[in-house]
């Protein structure tokens, strides 16, 4: 089992890991005292939370009043008096709001997302919920460790926010804005430096390692697949450990499926709505869906055994619809249909991940998922509570840095003009795009210069650098250069950076760093044969702007 080393900093700090899930959320933290081995702890008390323990999480739900003011959060929204007040005063419930941030490439027309409250964006709701989680964490830490300790760290807090494998720069930008609005840190360079992002797949790996879930196969250099099956997304990642070290390398492109438990719930809801459409029990469908979610779904094990949903009273009977004494009976095969599309998609993704990974390392171990032994995978599940695995793993990401190499999920490049060469067949086929540049030489429009190819293994902080030229007849045109970097993964999204200069012709390099979960950018150019980078005052910082 990995042994964490003492904190080497000179001042006490706090790191807080926040996991805002589609259905449930959690917070973990670690106090960093110089010379002391940090311990990851969970925030295990929240307002109105009935069960208190190591697995404590709260529903990702907010009630807003008619003026758009948040009135109840988390477990409070399940209290009967709150539910009745919400009905009486026409409050609006924000649930599953995380699904509103999914990239366009992940959108699913078959999945109906609950609408956001009127005049609220997903960023607004995230900000309100993150602020609530932080308030709860602050209260818990003060009550657990004392006010004096809190006073010593409240100005020295770093944060880690987890997000699905499939989220990228645009979603990270929204999360950062939400965190600023929530009051976690200031909206400047120093404030932004206090926030890091980690994918849910990598956070889950960190949790497994911290719980001692390593096997002989892993320690012999074979690979492991991590499956984090959440409420909205299922995140699948593959890694292997370098021999005789605790350094992990990603060995396949991380996957993210919109096939979490909310999809199972929606299929059950559609079945119930169709079953009781135009019948007296139609008004009981919403509470029946909730019972399916909180009880029936969790106990289903086999299609050979029927499932039951208790509702209403013993006088509720409809034999044609399998309702007896206020209890609906659903056949096992029918319940299996609610799960099967998600299960099949997950199985297909796991096998594809295994096939891609074996080009680098054979995969012998899988964590968190069952029934895969027939595919040559040893299956493991943590013995401890996993409800807060991602929040704990987010803090471990900050402390331990197990993963040193990641695999690029998409191809990045720049649309540019290149020198035309008639001897190259591709150039000749596109001869209509030839023009004469300012230097008097023929050039070819719209060529794609690749900075990084999908599937490339990228070490942390490794730079990918290409040189380009920008020219103009007007010097003022070169005072600000906007260069668009395009990422391709089935559709395009654009990332832009800006930098100033004062020459008619400028030679500059685009430098991208992909090794961490968040993309970093830099522009470097030559001025009077002096190389300037964004670390010098004369150049100013490079800024990444994600197109909405």
From TrEMBL:
InterPro entries: ATPase_NBD. It comes from the Eukaryota. PANTHER family: ALPHA KINASE/ELONGATION FACTOR 2 KINASE, HEAT SHOCK 70 KDA PROTEIN 12A. This is Actin-like ATPase domain-containing protein. It comes from Pterulicium gracile.
